[in-house]
Amino acid sequence: MELPRWSAPTAPGPVDAVVTLPGSKSLTNRYLVVAALADRPSRVRGPLRSRDTALMAAALEALGARVEDVDGGGPEPDWLVTPAERLTGGRVDVGLAGTVMRFVPPLAALAAGDVALDGDPRARERPMAPVVDALRALGVDVEDGGRGALPLLVHGRGSVGGGEVTLDAGASSQFVSGLLLAAARYDRGLVVRHVGPPLPSEPHVAMTVETLRDVGVVVDDSEPDVWSVRPGPVAGLDVQVEPDLSSAAPFLAAAAVTGGRVRVQGWPQHTTQAGDALRDLLDEMGAEVSLDRDGLEVRGGDLYGVDADLHEAGELVPVVVALAALASTPTRLRGVAHLRGHETDRLAALATEVTRLGGSVEETDDGLVVRPAPLRGGLVRTYADHRIAQAAAVLGLRVPDLEVEDVGTTAKTLPGFVGLWESMLAGPAARAAPARASRP
Ligand SMILES: O=C(O)C1=C[C@@H](OP(=O)(O)O)[C@@H](O)[C@H](O)C1
Ligand SMILES: C=C(OP(=O)(O)O)C(=O)O
């Protein structure tokens, strides 16, 4: 089947826009999980409403929790989460959401019944074995068809003894986060030890720990690569979700590649989101970056390549590659071998697609080398990867006649992407139309 194509707009000049982004995917899905395990209802204000968070909400409902829209006075309703008296069995569609496929099985182990999990074809290829092995080591009966991958059938028995488990989370920090999120409800709590290559996406584990502490769970993370969660009740929460800083990447990049100015409203002063690394990265690449109480502003100037280890912020790689392909000096990105297990093999996809546009992108064992080269238009395939589509949109600002296949795939984390992008580029006349991106 031929997928639809979107003609990525070229920038008519330097962009100049203020952008308001929806809530963080990673925070929304963590709040939903702890809320489903809590001892009272919770309110999640300004949640992200996207494919990944809708799948998480549906997964929790399949296990007996309730997730309802309630008016919070904002542009979109809040979510009121009512935990189940007792988690039950059910069927869970994980889609292509890493957070759903890795966070739900440790929770499913607490259900009084069988929980069946499956997802998109690519979800069956994403790494899962350490989660299956860890649950089995804790005495949970999990069927995986001998593949260590989805589809899974978790035979929940209503409780999990807990204890201690050792796993290799080198392929995804989500293996650790998923176990920690459920651990306070295991009878003896849980100690999780990571052994193996360095853990990627460490800020995401810090986010898990901070979320747990916010709901009264005691977590000791004082020893590197060891997390100890004490058993105990999970309190309800009433929380405002921060804007998604990884989704800010293409918009801030737009300022950098057009010599323009973009402000993202509501950028937090303190955050565990990996996307906060954009401040240093864009600064190193030549942009002017300033954070104040209202938000983050990026002004583009000369654009240079960068030598960066992005193992803490792998989500940013696709957009950084787009920046690098338009920069005047080479870029080397390291520490991101785990991106081969993301929505697609991101290293291969970025090398293939940018090379097809005339660029020079070479895969290494653990990253990419990007060299300056003139780019031409063409079709960018997106492999069901929201961030490849966003990276292509950034290239399109400077490369005429660039088409993006299946730009709708951005709905995984940012359903309004095309509208926001076009509003960012629109002239003042377009400002009268309702839009979430506006000119200053
Ligand atoms: O826990 C999370 O919310 C996430 C952790 C990271 O996963 P990996 O450690 O698998 O890269 C990140 O890339 C993903 O987008 C979200
Ligand atoms: C890797 C990502 O997603 P997931 O949560 O599906 O792993 C991502 O959003 O960049």
Automatic annotation (TrEMBL):
<feature type="binding site">
    <location>
        <position position="201"/>
    </location>
    <ligand>
        <name>3-phosphoshikimate</name>
    </ligand>
</feature>
<keyword id="KW-0028">Amino-acid biosynthesis</keyword>
<dbReference type="InterPro" id="IPR001986">
    <property type="entry name" value="Enolpyruvate_Tfrase_dom"/>
</dbReference>
<comment type="subunit">
    <text>Monomer.</text>
</comment>
<feature type="domain" description="Enolpyruvate transferase">
    <location>
        <begin position="11"/>
        <end position="418"/>
    </location>
</feature>
<dbReference type="InterPro" id="IPR006264">
    <property type="entry name" value="EPSP_synthase"/>
</dbReference>
<feature type="binding site">
    <location>
        <position position="174"/>
    </location>
    <ligand>
        <name>3-phosphoshikimate</name>
    </ligand>
</feature>
<feature type="binding site">
    <location>
        <position position="315"/>
    </location>
    <ligand>
        <name>3-phosphoshikimate</name>
    </ligand>
</feature>
<feature type="binding site">
    <location>
        <position position="25"/>
    </location>
    <ligand>
        <name>3-phosphoshikimate</name>
    </ligand>
</feature>
<feature type="binding site">
    <location>
        <position position="346"/>
    </location>
    <ligand>
        <name>phosphoenolpyruvate</name>
    </ligand>
</feature>
<protein>
    <recommendedName>
        <fullName>3-phosphoshikimate 1-carboxyvinyltransferase</fullName>
        <ecNumber>2.5.1.19</ecNumber>
    </recommendedName>
</protein>
<feature type="binding site">
    <location>
        <position position="342"/>
    </location>
    <ligand>
        <name>3-phosphoshikimate</name>
    </ligand>
</feature>
<feature type="binding site">
    <location>
        <position position="387"/>
    </location>
    <ligand>
        <name>phosphoenolpyruvate</name>
    </ligand>
</feature>
<feature type="binding site">
    <location>
        <position position="412"/>
    </location>
    <ligand>
        <name>phosphoenolpyruvate</name>
    </ligand>
</feature>
<feature type="binding site">
    <location>
        <position position="30"/>
    </location>
    <ligand>
        <name>3-phosphoshikimate</name>
    </ligand>
</feature>
<comment type="function">
    <text>Catalyzes the transfer of the enolpyruvyl moiety of phosphoenolpyruvate (PEP) to the 5-hydroxyl of shikimate-3-phosphate (S3P) to produce enolpyruvyl shikimate-3-phosphate and inorganic phosphate.</text>
</comment>
<feature type="binding site">
    <location>
        <position position="98"/>
    </location>
    <ligand>
        <name>phosphoenolpyruvate</name>
    </ligand>
</feature>
<keyword id="KW-0963">Cytoplasm</keyword>
<feature type="active site" description="Proton acceptor">
    <location>
        <position position="315"/>
    </location>
</feature>
<feature type="binding site">
    <location>
        <position position="26"/>
    </location>
    <ligand>
        <name>3-phosphoshikimate</name>
    </ligand>
</feature>
<feature type="binding site">
    <location>
        <position position="25"/>
    </location>
    <ligand>
        <name>phosphoenolpyruvate</name>
    </ligand>
</feature>
<dbReference type="InterPro" id="IPR023193">
    <property type="entry name" value="EPSP_synthase_CS"/>
</dbReference>
<feature type="binding site">
    <location>
        <position position="173"/>
    </location>
    <ligand>
        <name>3-phosphoshikimate</name>
    </ligand>
</feature>
<comment type="similarity">
    <text>Belongs to the EPSP synthase family.</text>
</comment>
<dbReference type="Pfam" id="PF00275">
    <property type="entry name" value="EPSP_synthase"/>
</dbReference>
<feature type="binding site">
    <location>
        <position position="126"/>
    </location>
    <ligand>
        <name>phosphoenolpyruvate</name>
    </ligand>
</feature>
<dbReference type="GO" id="GO:0003866">
    <property type="term" value="F:3-phosphoshikimate 1-carboxyvinyltransferase activity"/>
</dbReference>
<keyword id="KW-0808">Transferase</keyword>
<comment type="pathway">
    <text>Metabolic intermediate biosynthesis; chorismate biosynthesis; chorismate from D-erythrose 4-phosphate and phosphoenolpyruvate: step 6/7.</text>
</comment>
<dbReference type="InterPro" id="IPR036968">
    <property type="entry name" value="Enolpyruvate_Tfrase_sf"/>
</dbReference>
<feature type="binding site">
    <location>
        <position position="174"/>
    </location>
    <ligand>
        <name>phosphoenolpyruvate</name>
    </ligand>
</feature>
<dbReference type="InterPro" id="IPR013792">
    <property type="entry name" value="RNA3'P_cycl/enolpyr_Trfase_a/b"/>
</dbReference>
<feature type="binding site">
    <location>
        <position position="172"/>
    </location>
    <ligand>
        <name>3-phosphoshikimate</name>
    </ligand>
</feature>
<keyword id="KW-0057">Aromatic amino acid biosynthesis</keyword>
